[in-house]
Amino acid sequence: MGASTLFLLLGLLLEGIFRMPWVQSRLPFQAYGINHIQFEYQLMRLQDFTRRYGAPDCFILGTSQSLRGIDPEILNPALQSSSGEKLTCYNFSIVGVNMSTNLLFAEILVQEYHPRLFIIGTSFLDYTTSRENRYDPRFEESAWVKYKLGHLNLQGWLIEHSYAYRAVLYLSYAAPAFMDFSEVHNEERKWGFQLSEYGYGYSDHAIDLDEPLTEAFINNFLEQFGDFGLSTWNLDSLNAIAELAAENGITLVLVEMPYTSTLVELRGEDGTAHAYSQTLQDFIARANARLEEIARQYHLPFWKAPSHLAYPPDAWHDLYHLNVHGSPLFTRWLAEQLDEALQSGAIELKQANKEK
Q1: Distance CA 327, CA 70 (A)
Q2: What span, in angstroms and rounded, lies between the C-alpha atoms of 307 and 309?
Q3: Could you give the CA distance from residue 317 to residue 209 in angstroms, rounded to a whole number?
Q4: What confidence tens digit (pLDDT) does each residue in 269-301 have?
Q5: 72-83 and 327-344 helices cross at what angle (nearest 10)?
Q6: pLDDT value, residue 134
Q7: Do 75 and 334 touch, CB atoms closer than 8 A?
Q8: Phi, psi (degrees; rounded to nearest 5) at 316
């Protein structure tokens, strides 16, 4: 027996072992070589969701703001009542990504699931100077992402099809820590608990909004704005998502994610507003103006976060993330906007793809 034949037989044996339900039940998630555990848990939840309910008709895209701010379990009933159909929405927002990375996700989701609606949760924080050309090789250089987007490569094929290869990748996640799995396990436990079956990021952590901001926090926060220029790279990526949606007959909605007035006022420990508070507010106005311009260009709704919602004192995970006490209010407001827009014909959903 030749070495190549022996190697092939060994590979088939390992693949058979790692496909066994007993073995799979002991792996917390499928590793796709990206080493972004929230993303990989999110992908696993999406696959479970699809097996249980069918392919989602709608995806929520964005960063941790929309992950923690929009709960599809609250949103879905409004979509169903408005359309007269049973529509499902899944939250595919990923912590720490750029709009350019969301473009990659949108392209994959269009090919894989043929959705009818994209909801992009965004805010001025997505377009700061620090996000301009911020390259994330975990996604941009991912063999699996390239494979899913039609760029054939052996590693990407193995990641997509081989359970054994994904198990090896899982083990590699602890390599930078000299095979100390404590950090990997901490992330596993965190996202295994926090992600709902609809992709929503549950958090019951709450801050005290009356607590003054420290000088260190203000300085660190302002650092990401640099000269307060807008990230054209990420705005161009949002344009590209709008074009992708238009080309595929997908309805696209832009919604501004909420943040606290405390964040914008930048009041320090002495209670006075920071010198850059007005500059920050001007930046937010310019960012929203560009979003409105994109919305007009592609005939999209852009709904700004309402200021009238009576959030409870414990509604905020931090100054720009809602938690489980605040997200229901925001999601219900968003559901009302969607319901009104669908009922009035301001937005329409294409016919369902019966083949998906």
Answers
A1: 6
A2: 6
A3: 10
A4: 787 888 899 999 999 999 999 999 999 999 999
A5: 20
A6: 77
A7: yes
A8: -115, 125
